[in-house]
Design brief:
This protein has a single domain, classed as DNA polymerase, domain 1 (Orthogonal Bundle). It contains five helices and two strands. By secondary structure, the chain is an alpha+beta fold. The protein is about 55% helix and about 15% strand.
């Protein structure tokens, strides 16, 4: 069994980087007003909150691994 990357979390990080949020301080300093201006979906808002929490907890690896999906490794 092999861990799977959480694509939704990767995509929200890409979106934040494109919007100019390129470091820990910028991302963890986001306000609800900042997020609302981004015109993101409710799911993306959740991902942003989870990213902020993962950064604060120094737990980015677990944030990017999709614990619900498992890929079979046939090597």
């Amino acid at each position: 069994m092999m861990a799977v990357v959480h694509n939704g979390h990767i995509n929200i990080l890409r979106k934040l980087i494109k919007l100019g949020y390129t470091d820990k301080k910028a991302i963890t300093s986001l306000t609800i007003q900042d997020v609302l201006k981004m015109k993101v979906t409710k799911g993306e808002m959740q991902n942003i909150c989870e990213l902020m929490e993962a950064i604060r907890d120094n737990d980015l690896l677990n944030f990017f691994i999709d614990s619900k999906a498992v890929e079979n490794d046939e090597i």
